[in-house]
What does this fold into?
Amino acid sequence: VFNPVAQGKRFDPQGTYVRRWVPELATLPDNAIHEPSNPAIATLFTGVDYPLPIVDHGVEREEALLRYRALREK
It folds into this structure.
């Protein structure tokens, strides 16, 4: 199950891709760039116009796994 936060941390730990394509987040430190909506990190860029997440990846991961299991059982 794809998780963009985990993938970003794994394959772009310095946030080079994010800084290039999401300039609103360019000033965040490396350890914060992949999780701008994390409440502990959000205070680092107060006043920046950046949208809140559309989905909770933890919840959606569980939903996807349930659906995969249901398909396998058929």
The two ends are 20 Å apart (CA to CA). The helical segments are 4-11, 16-21, 39-42, 57-73.
